[in-house]
Specification:
The protein has 200 residues and is α+β, with helices and mostly antiparallel strands. The protein is built from seven helices and four strands.
Length: 200
Amino acid sequence: MRFHPAPPLSRALLGLMLLAGAAQAASSHPPMQKADPAAIAAGKEAPAPQPISDEVIGQEYDAYRASVKGQKMYTVSYILLADEKAARQWISKLKMGAPFGRTAREHSKHAPSAAHDGVLGPFATCRWSKDTIALLDSLKPGQIHGKPVKASAGWSIYRLDAVKPLEPISYAQYKEQLLSGTFRPECPWVPPVQVDVPQQ
């Protein structure tokens, strides 16, 4: 009996059958998992992280500068009291010379600031509500707001300690902080370019 080579279509079908068999065999095994670092052969190192380009950092820096444009930094001291009557009484005492820091330490219900003599610290405009910004803008540095402000946990007393325009950090500082993972924006902000910074 003489052998005749298979026509091209039959060869193609044979190839598909072989591929299908291989796929079926592969499907009977669990999917491959990410290799464990300990399983990497000795002498082979993981590829080094790629450096972040100055172009990408420049894009992020421009967006950071835009996020703080026109912002102010308010340094504020704060006392939180349980009721309005007590807050009014303490505002009068403070205006007559009672020490703000001691009053905050001994009477404020806001533990984080009470531990620092009532000082909340510097925060940008974007961190305050519109009503609080209006309140702070009505004060001069060192001045206590004349009325207690209703808060979710009681009544608040505000003193404006300082206010100044928010100056963005320099490009060099931004780059250093970004690459070291220590950058903390003054305003809640998501960079336009997500950068996976390798940690040392």
